[in-house]
Amino acid sequence: MQELIASGQVASDLWIVERLVMSDHAPDEPARDLKFYCFYGQIPLMLETTRHPIVQRCWYDAGGERVQTGKYTDQLFSGHGIPETYVEAALRISTEVPSPFVRVDFLASPDGPVFNKITPKPGGSHLLNRRWDVRLGNRFLAAERRLLEDLLQGRRFEAFLRHAS
User: CA triplet 34, 21, 52: central angle to 5 degrees?
Assistant: First the structure.
């Protein structure tokens, strides 16, 4: 690595260290990805992804029922389900971000939710079928209205502002 840095092929000696998180369902496999499509305190759509031995996905609606969205149709499986503690954590996070929409991602570990990231604009939304496209679009508009009402009433997003800089 020192040679790559010296030659300029690597710009700086900067490292990112990641922790391996194992699955809550299969201790010898990587953790499942759980993605929550959050509309300022509401979660109409959730996605579970396993990556070993092959990539498989399962979509869920707000009630935890499996749904077809038109996306990943060739990778669908019956899923393991999403624990309520993950839903509650995603809801809490989504109400602390001053945005009508964010996707909140967790890894499902034996010890509970491991926060992965917040994504304001996940890719591939154009692949959703018309039913889900319209449903999520309506959720966005309603969330935008709720957020604007909160802002006009003076709500401050202290947790967000502490971490935004």
Answer: 70
Residue closest to 103 by CA, chosen among 43, 24, 62: 43
pLDDT digits (tens, 9 = 90+) for 55-86: 999 999 999 999 999 999 999 999 999 999 99
- Residue 126 CB partners (closer than 8 Å, separation 6+): none
**Could you give the domains of the chain?**
18-164 (3.30.470.20)
Query: pTM score, two decimals?
Result: 0.88
Per-residue tokens: 34: 């759980």
Task: Give the DSSP per-residue string, 98-116.
Answer: SSS-EEEEEEEETTEEEEE
Q: In 10 A of CB 36, how many CB atoms?
A: 23
